[in-house]
Write a structure and sequence with these properties.
- Pfam families: Mqo (PF06039).
- Strand 10 and strand 11 form a beta hairpin.
- Helix 2 crosses helix 13 and helix 2 crosses helix 15.
- By secondary structure, the protein is of the alpha/beta class.
- Strands 5, 6, 7, 14, 15, 16, 17, 18, 19 and 20 form a ten-stranded mixed beta sheet that branches.
- The protein has a single domain, classed as FAD/NAD(P)-binding domain (3-Layer(bba) Sandwich).
Length: 497
């Protein structure tokens, strides 16, 4: 066996290196092969296959995040008003994803959209008069917008029984409830979509190298040298003028290793999760929806309880959760030293500053970690009163790293969303955080490409418009365009409308 000093380092060049084999890199690879078909693009993924970490079907909720049911996108103000602004923005971004996927279907890059996307109604469900009033206000605020115009609202047990029988079965009819429903909702298998996008990009020349762990990012003149190690110990370096770091939770330490100024002050707080899963065909057949409730006091937005229909590997199943957990790992397959190694002199102040304002989150996490299986089923039964523990099993979901961002007033702030990082010279881009990143990855990648390649924007614009017609043209401000886009993408993707 060759010694470390005698081992040959394989060197090559590329126009772009994408680190990480998840939905973000897959989306970027698919976009770049359309925008720059002559570029040499290399993808480096440490696992044996792509789409196995956060993008894997059971490692995320699979909700096509469009703010149709997620109540955390429409917070209620102290005066009782509900602002639709963030929900509209999230929906706009998801429409870009639908448009891009439709383009790939129409050009033959995606053969069968039913392999990754299905129509599943999105329902918001609340209990109690105060919450019902909030949901009514939310419905009033959103239904005026063309992207939410078909959303229905009810306080009727009988009507909700038609929408989602498992929610009302065994529930007292005297209980005050309210719900909204949108038939435009979807379930997305992002793991399968990741594999489909990489397959399409590979056919156009993108080189996807799996089983390669990136060990170093170093400047080589105007380029970056990306060093990786294979499973057999071989070392290679790819030199490229642009690098995208889409490695999920591992994106933070990789950009720290690169030493870019833009990552200074950023930290991460890992949160894991678990689901209850049901495969009983009789129960599965009685539920066709994603039903989202309100988060518990102190719970992060990613822990909003929901009972979901899922389509994974050709099977329809149910999922309830998530139940928050904790691990110091930044990836499901990461190391227990990940969190400690991410603490640097440049971010320790920010990481310490987020603790006092988030004590309720700490309390919530401790309570979740101590829950028994019986207690988890009890939480399910609040949603689904007829649930039987024997029909459900506990599975581990994906690992998320919530962003701790620098804030000049509070030193650091804990964010629950997606953070795009780009260098001033346009040589590197990266993505931190969690939801709704997978659903809105097309918007995020297009925004990144504008930031890092401003000189190419005018040349790319006609191609971008052909792939994503509403880019920089808000559908929410054009009712006819919104209807046309929803109708077209539904037809191409085989969705209900």
């Amino acid at each position: 066996m060759p010694t470390r000093s005698s081992r040959t380092v394989n060197a090559s060049t590329a126009d772009a290196v994408l680190i990480g084999g998840g939905i973000a890199s897959a989306t970027l690879a698919a976009l770049l092969t359309e925008l720059e078909p002559d570029w040499r693009i290399v993808v480096l993924e440490k696992l044996p296959k792509v789409g196995q970490e956060a993008s894997d079907g059971w490692n995320n909720a699979g909700t096509g995040h469009s703010a149709l049911c997620e109540l955390n996108y429409t917070p209620q103000d102290v005066d009782g008003s509900v602002s639709p602004k963030k929900a509209i923005s999230i929906n706009e971004q998801f429409q870009l994803s639908r448009q891009f996927w439709s383009h790939l279907v129409e050009t033959g890059s995606i053969a069968d959209p039913s392999a990754f996307i299905h129509s599943v109604p999105h329902i918001s469900f609340v209990r109690g008069l105060e919450n019902a009033d909030y949901l009514r206000r939310r419905h009033e605020a959103l239904s005026q917008n063309p992207l939410f115009r078909d959303m229905e609202y009810t306080t009727s047990h009988a009507e909700l029984s038609e929408w989602a029988p498992l929610i009302t079965r065994g529930r007292p009819e005297t209980e005050s409830i309210a719900a909204t429903r949108s038939l435009d909702g979807t379930d997305v298998n992002f793991g399968e979509l990741t594999r489909i996008l990489f397959d399409a990009a590979s056919k156009q020349g993108t080189e996807v190298r799996t089983g390669r762990t990136v060990t170093s990012l170093r400047r080589m003149g105007r380029d970056w040298g990306v060093m990786s190690r294979g499973t057999d110990g071989d070392v290679s370096v790819v030199r490229a003028p642009f690098v995208f770091v889409g490695a999920g939770g591992n994106a933070l330490p990789l950009m720290q290793d690169a030493g870019i100024d833009e990552i200074r002050g950023f930290g991460g707080f890992p949160i894991s999760g678990e689901w209850l899963r049901c495969t009983n065909p009789d129960i599965v057949a009685d539920h066709s929806a994603k039903v989202y409730g309100k988060a518990a006091v102190g719970a992060p937005p990613m822990s909003v309880p929901h009972l979901d229909t899922r389509y994974i590997n050709g099977r329809r199943e149910l999922m309830f959760g998530p139940y928050a957990g904790w691990s110091p790992k930044f990836l499901k397959t990461g190391s227990n030293t990940d969190l400690l190694r991410s603490v640097k002199p440049s971010n320790i102040g920010q990481m310490l500053a987020v603790a006092p304002p988030n004590l309720d989150l700490m309390t919530y996490l401790v309570s979740e970690l101590t829950k028994t299986f019986k207690q988890r089923v009890a939480s399910l039964q609040e949603f689904m009163p007829s649930a039987n523990a024997d029909d459900w099993e506990l599975i581990t979901a994906g690992q998320r790293v919530q962003v701790i961002a620098p804030d000049k007033d509070r030193l650091g702030v804990l964010q629950f969303g997606t953070q795009l990082i780009t260098t001033a010279d346009g040589s590197m881009g990266g993505m931190l955080g969690a939801s709704p990143g997978a659903s809105t990855s097309v918007e995020i990648m297009l925004r990144m490409l504008e930031a890092v390649f401003p000189q190419r924007s005018s040349t790319w614009e006609p191609k971008v418009r052909a792939m994503v017609p509403s880019w920089r043209k808000p559908l929410s401000q054009d009712p006819s365009a919104a209807t046309a886009s929803l109708d077209r993408t539904a037809e191409v993707l085989g969705l209900n409308r």
